[in-house]
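Usage example:
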Amino acid sequence: MKKDAIKQLIDVAAARGEPDLVIKSAQIVDVFSGKILEGDVAIIDGRIAGIGSYSGKKTFDAKGAFLLPGFIDGHVHIESSYTDPPSFARLLLPCGTTTVIADPHEICNVSGLDGFDYMVESSLSLPLSIFFMLPSCVPSSPFENSGAVLLADSLAKRMDLPQVLGLGEMMDMEGTIGADPAVVDKLALAKKWRKLIDGHAPGVHGHNLNAYAAAGIHTDHECTTPSELQERIERGMYVLLREGSATRDLLNLLPGVTPANAHMCLFCTDDRQPQSILEEGHIDNHLRLAVDFGLDPIIAIRMATLHAANCYGLHDRGAIAPGRRADLVLVNNLKEFAVQNVFVAGQLYKEEQSFKPTPIPSKVATKITIGDFHRDRFKLRLTSPQVRVIEIIAGAVVTNMAKKEVLLDNKGYYRHDPSQDILKLAVVERHKGTGNVALALITGYGLKHGAVATTIAHDAHNIIVAGDNDADMAAAVESLVTLGGGIVMVRDGELLDSLALPIAGLMTNKGALYVNEKLKNMHQIALEELGIPENIDPFMTLSFMALPVIPHLKVTDMGLFDVDSFSFVSLEL
Amino acid sequence: MKKDAIKQLIDVAAARGEPDLVIKSAQIVDVFSGKILEGDVAIIDGRIAGIGSYSGKKTFDAKGAFLLPGFIDGHVHIESSYTDPPSFARLLLPCGTTTVIADPHEICNVSGLDGFDYMVESSLSLPLSIFFMLPSCVPSSPFENSGAVLLADSLAKRMDLPQVLGLGEMMDMEGTIGADPAVVDKLALAKKWRKLIDGHAPGVHGHNLNAYAAAGIHTDHECTTPSELQERIERGMYVLLREGSATRDLLNLLPGVTPANAHMCLFCTDDRQPQSILEEGHIDNHLRLAVDFGLDPIIAIRMATLHAANCYGLHDRGAIAPGRRADLVLVNNLKEFAVQNVFVAGQLYKEEQSFKPTPIPSKVATKITIGDFHRDRFKLRLTSPQVRVIEIIAGAVVTNMAKKEVLLDNKGYYRHDPSQDILKLAVVERHKGTGNVALALITGYGLKHGAVATTIAHDAHNIIVAGDNDADMAAAVESLVTLGGGIVMVRDGELLDSLALPIAGLMTNKGALYVNEKLKNMHQIALEELGIPENIDPFMTLSFMALPVIPHLKVTDMGLFDVDSFSFVSLEL
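Running the assembly step on the lines above writes:
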């Protein structure tokens, strides 16, 4: 902060200088004392100068609404919104979210540091504050081919950036708990820079949790039970209560939050799609759910603001107090949290009327490089009809391993049985042209006839495709190549609909409203034309089937993967 | 943290490696969850590896005692213990205090950066962790002569030190609220280094408090009422609840502490003498008082540990959790907090049997340079018998301005009246030989006959002397010069007793027990021979009479000073 700015801020606070803006008649939620304060809020040069009696160049009459600090999403993958950072900002700000901590590990799996740089560069002048964690696990495991490998020496090239708060979610739990040298290199890098390390520790307990925490990992957003939440807090870890689109843990975790441990709790979305955000909201939705559950509104607000700021060392925000950024939200009351107005660094946020797509730099334009691909690659020969099948759990990203008996033809090839909800699932490597095509079987997806394919397949983002027949599956992959990445639906060789994702095969620059309309339409087609039931997200569900760090059975481009034993397994039992 | 150390810590946490020490059968106070946990605490290389089931090279049986994180004193002037840092560490560790944040502004007023360097250097290898704030107000005001002036350019030379957490208590409230350029220079320096700024804001409210907080000042340890405490927390400032020797604010402030705002509260001693520490304790004493008052023990312990760590960004300590420093305290229960054992970085603390004084570097050896001094300098000519008199308030460092009528001789010189408790008080400049001698009158000190003088006179540490006659006052000053700094008592020309303070006239290297015995004896002499009543500390009281930043009436080497109007005033009304 420049000396002139310090002097100006002090002058305005002392009521000698004139504020840019004074917000009057608000009920000010003070997250420090837990009280509702009365008074004018004086703002100068983007910061709060003081609370008291002030008059300024402009006045905003809050008419008795509640003034809250801008909300903070502690952990988000922007890529999961299918939109680029400028569109993401437009999507979140009306919900009162003014700061996010983003882990761009999706695009980094595709484009490496080029992808990281793109996210940082395209975030620079946005009204949404976007901080970054450097993806720690690219690829998420050694059991897949991704578009890039980020080891400590690569990460070191970006750790000095001021908007980089540390190392992103350490999904390599085995490597961390095992003190694997490559993991230790990354931990040491973050510590050297005195930066933070985010966690990802589903199902980790006891000695293993001690080891994970001792490694310096200071958050976890993968808790699903109150006891997991509490065990992490007891080990000094912050817990991020997640309410995404596919993963909704908030209500399951809230019974574990107490007035004594809430200081270690904050909110995150992790992966949240435009539809959820547009229809339900963002962190404002967490607030509604939490207060409706019975959490004290002040504690809920602290989790949405101050605790997140404390967790990530963002001491310039997260509260309404002198010197802090004037990121502010006016809501109607502390139950509905209907967002009326949002101020970003003291400026009333107004969405621009016209939408202009931001250009896509060539370094992140979608590339699809598949080798040796043809329809016969989907032929599945089995030595036994008793097989492991990936069982989808509606509304979750974890899967079960189901044991099923399937039909085989006389040459031992798998044959689709329309009476059983079992489909073929394939991952086609798309970054290096290895020609890898891995096959699996899936149940619970519900597709009746046709194929769905996408270039979004966490975290390596190869092509994933599911279908009841090889011809449609192959047509879907070919359509995806033609489209230049995205999502496609095919039936009887016909492309039913598609969403193009020209940024790394993950995002579009056409905005969240476009994405939402398009996906709504495509969901309708998936339901009506492909028969995928309403309780299954036809695209996101597929996108998580290749993620080998989430239990229990997944498939990567290298084969069927048992997350529990952290090794490949055969389809045959 | 080196990679080998990270790996070793993880290995031990995961129960693959062997801990150096395992503490068993303790009731572990978890400041994160607010719960009492059971389990073994595994320690390796000075850090906590995990809580659970462990066996190690050594075992310590806690026998059911409560295991707490080491206590943190958020703000202390080590010089006020009269002992050097090595002796201070010996004094504090048995009380369970393992970390202090020290503001060495006393020695810096005498010796400038040489004094600062001495404090840092003599703290380097101690078992007590000593962090430093760079004194922001040397001298405390422009209304006195000190041994050094530290402007921003001087402070900049030490701001990079890892043990420097920021800028010390900003006592120049007027300069801060007024955005004085020299103050703004210092604020900007701390902000540039992303370091903290401690506050000192007695009586600051409203717009002024907004301005003070907007300046980036993030603590205050000068609150005396619950409403002051609450107002500061509402402005985002941490409040340090002080229990010193002369200033005891804790019980006055505790009614303002609530479960909702306690996260912004921590403890400090500020100025605490060996006697108080040896007889009552240190931060353990805060804990006893707070719990006895009715504060929840867990909240009290958090204030003594985690909240202080959070306030000062010391995230490597303040809690019992994997990866944190194994600074630990075993107490008998959560009411008496009788300290049974202290572990410093995993080592059981045992006081060394033999005491070896640490050598005194010549750069801080006491120097006394007084110019043009003789007994007649104490003659006080008044133009009116109606005078302003400094009124001592027993147990406080603030004074009142009393209006009194005194006796004058026929030439207009003040004459001592044995029937009135009014004495002459003088400040003799001792750093630069200016020859400044300023006179004042004092009531409430109670001395009957003789003089007391000391080189401890906050904050400029000139010589301050009080007496009923000029001859004894002059003899006291001369004794002090001969002694090489410290405290002397004189009656009828005879040196009754003295404490030598060969480090900057403020500290000795002879240890706290020596100081305590010596001072006890001197207090007895003050009571019996000089008639100073028991409720008045004969030396500390005097030491605060020259501090022009504490209300209301004080005297510096430049004259009688009205703190309220922040200007010199005449003795005559």
